[in-house]
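@channel sequence for tomorrow's demo:
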Amino acid sequence: MAVKEINKTRIQNSTTTQQQHQQEQEGCDPCKSFGQKCSHLVKKQRAKFYILRRCIAMLLCYHERSEH
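structure tokens (generated this afternoon):
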């Protein structure tokens, strides 16, 4: 009986952990307004474009330096 209880507890903990991980991945609280969600997504996209722009600039600068 104890083994079944331990397995049941592990399954419950695993399910809870999966739900928490999914909420972290979504990154938005369900009680946020539509505007807040949009604002959050815009900020994330802006950050991604910034990183991409910086990487491209570094690659171009590296290419220019290697020619000289």
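heads up for whoever presents: The chain has two helices and no strands.
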